Amino acid sequence: MKNVWIVGSSGHVGTALTELLDCMKYKMFFTDSTEVDVTNRQLVHLYITRIRPDVIINCAAITNNEECEKNPELAYAVNAIGARNLAVEAQAIEAKLIQLSTDDVFDGKLDRAYNEFDTPNPQTVYGKSKYAGEKFIEAFSNKYVIIRSSWVYGTGRDFVSYALNQVKNNGEIEAHTNEYACPTSAEELAKIVAQFIDNDCFGIYHAVCKGACSRYEFATEIVKNLGKENSINVKAREYVNPVNSVLDNMMLRIDGIEEPCEWKKALKSHISKIGGIR
């Protein structure tokens, strides 16, 4: 039985993994920042020495772009140094490290979907700090998987919860018509992450729901699923320059790993699961 440690278990994907993984199949360990602060190398070392994980899944991150811009030191501490600390300690005990990353490592200027062989060029503190974390992992760990995703939603703060709250309060939803990506449910992403616990695949992977859309189309689909398309206004906005962070799951296909389902199907399932308006 493998020991599996989920770091940052209270976030979107951490929560989905907690619900998904079979505690009869694995010996599970779940921690959040109050229990193990990944920025503290000594605490990470002590915890890993105690539980001896075979697989570490790092879901811990500062993901809010505004928060990262306001406090870049915290963003780099958690997203980069935290990843480094886990990589060093994972390497010491030959554990497999699965790191969650983001489409924000790219600049959004490409006129096609980004695959795993495209060169990152992050433009935000969030993207730069997550990319720094990726580089640390590549430098310090031999057994790693980096999984990039985009527009992830599940529990807590995300675009879906924002839209649901606006609908609940009969408010207006603002969304950009020229910002493109692949909305991905935490549940679908967790299914991909789980496959890497037992397989022998390593390296960088993109894992997003099939299909792509603009933020405006995403908002419109949320409202449609709630049956509120005739009563809630989705206000269109535009960036000066279009932003394209659509990801291509090329490596999943090459390695024969089933891709997440189509984004509209995942969204419908998520809204149905949470009972619509919270």
* Silhouette: globular
The N- to C-terminal Cα distance equals 38 Å
Q: State the fourth-level CATH superfamily.
A: NAD(P)-binding Rossmann-like Domain
What share of residues is helical?
40-55%
The beta-strand count equals 13
Radius of gyration: 18 Å
Number of separate domains: 1
The main pleated sheet reads as: 6 strands, parallel
The helix count comes to 10
- Please give the CATH class: Alpha Beta
Uncertain parts = none
Q: Architecture, according to CATH?
A: 3-Layer(aba) Sandwich
Given helix and strand content, the structural type is alpha/beta
Kindly report the CATH topology.
Rossmann fold
Write structural notes for this entry:
Strand 1 (2-7), helix 1 (12-20) and strand 2 form a beta-alpha-beta unit. It contains ten helices and 13 strands. The longest helix has 21 residues, at 72-92. The protein has a six-stranded parallel beta sheet with strand order 2-1-3-4-5-10, sandwiched between helices. The chain has a single domain, classed as Rossmann fold (3-Layer(aba) Sandwich), CATH 3.40.50. It is globular, with a radius of gyration of 18 Å. With 278 residues, it is of the alpha/beta class. Helix 1 crosses helix 7 and helix 2 packs parallel to helix 4.
